[in-house]
């Protein structure tokens, strides 16, 4: 089954509980919605989205006069499917559809979420799909960040453009784009420093980077990807809120999903921000990146 092992923990915390609930009950009673609510909250879906699901269920149960438990079960599945149904084109198609090279992706996210690892994985993934990728080490804030991204670029077998620590990130981006243009690269991945605690600097840095990109390619960045750590649960939702406040996030990669019971947070993220989740990080190795598919995700829980 797709996602079965990666989502094992989330599955146990969410689906197994739902399944138990429905198997214990013989008819619809007044507290079934309370029980569902409790399970959704404990699965890290978030208060706002949980309330929305419960309200919708309540309305539909009354309006459509549902009588049996299986109907409620199907309704719940439908509601969750609707919430995470966001129109999304897969990254490879977006890259191919662009007639002008390169396709520029800015990667943002706070430290520790798995940003560096994910850039390595994404470079490897795209390279395997036949694209020529180059990485720009524009997180110049920490020396270790440059070393780490270099290790991952080597692992993925793609070139890296870097400067020294504390160099101007926009200057690294400039070099990277020049190199991408002259070597006819298809995709540019730009690592950025995720200093949310210093919002003004981060905002200035990102807008300066965007200006350089626009100057060289005549277009703004094609994608701004936010990396989030699924194990942080509700905190991940908070990070989306903060980042979207000053930058237009176009897609999300949710990492460390395989080790956590908090995978339900992705339902809350997609519902509240309507930003598609593009990939899931499912381990520490370079191939541990999986394309996210909402339908398959829901089916994995409600078979
Ligand atoms: P950064 O500070 O955001 O650049 O984070 P790193 O890429 O250095 O990763 C931080 C830690 O998370 C490392 O120990 C990685 O191996 C680990 N990590 C990254 N992605 C995943 C994932 O999908 N699953 C698991 N289990 N660990 C991950």
TrEMBL record:
Class in the EC hierarchy, top level: hydrolase
Complex formation: Part of the signal recognition particle protein translocation system, which is composed of SRP and FtsY.
Record flagged with keyword Ubl conjugation: no
Gene name of the encoded protein: ftsY
Job description of the protein: Involved in targeting and insertion of nascent membrane proteins into the cytoplasmic membrane. Acts as a receptor for the complex formed by the signal recognition particle (SRP) and the ribosome-nascent chain (RNC).
Protein name: Signal recognition particle receptor FtsY
Major localization class: membrane
Species for this entry: Blattabacterium cuenoti BPAY
Keyword Cell division: yes
Keyword annotations of the record: Cell cycle, Cell division, Cell membrane, Coiled coil, Cytoplasm, GTP-binding, Hydrolase, Membrane, Nucleotide-binding, Receptor
